[in-house]
Amino acid sequence: MLTTLLWPTSGTILVNGHDPQVDEDEVKNSVGLVAGEDRSFYWRLTGRQNLEFFSALYGLTPGKTREKINSLLTEVHLLDAADNMFYSYSSGMKQKLSLARGLLCDPAVLFLDEPTKSVDALTARDLRRFIKEGLRGKKSQTVFLTTHHLEEAELLCDRLAIIDKGKIVFCGTIADLRNVSTSKTKFEMTVDSLSKQKLEEICRHPSITALSIENSVSSESELIVGFSILNGHNPLPRVIEDVFSGGGSLLTCKQLDARLEEMFTALIEEQ
Which of 177, 10, 8 shows the shortest CA–CA distance to 169? Predict the structure, then answer.
């Protein structure tokens, strides 16, 4: 609907200030779409020829087209394979060419529909790096990313919207989500001169869950203690006091930020 491929049954959408149902051409002129659909390319053309064809559809002049295509092929690391037939491309190469095509017209809004789906780990890493550094870092357009990979959203997005059963249940920054999340607070401590058994006794509290005690790689006498605290409780001062009174030393104590996956799960379970 945001790219005018479907019409909404109700409600209002504005894309770059334009309503797709009223200003369809204005919306199409201001957006780029990377949908991961290789059937929209011509398989018996080269990668370069495909981009030249779509450049002509955008109305770009031949001089600008040549320069623009070379620049984009370089950015997505496809210049060496630009004159190979599209049918010979791997899934990752096809996705990179799709990304280059989406940028041909310098769109104000670039829609990326699961850009790392069905590609190998190295290609996915390259695509994420390009999105983060090449698009977010150097270009001025808005990037609208849809993904089921929450670690990808956490790495790439400034703001996020979470949809559950067709409705947006949260929209804001990850920091905003962390402020309203009911996910448990996690802590990690480094303790010296106490046994695992003693630490288990100290951390035996109704509000402490997911306790883990592991040996430190830096010292045989040090233990790494991790645990979660139920919201609304704060047994940490008592735990720290018991560590010292039990003859131990507290070397480090830090709160760990909840991961997006944990906050997402807590939010959806509340609905």
Answer: 177
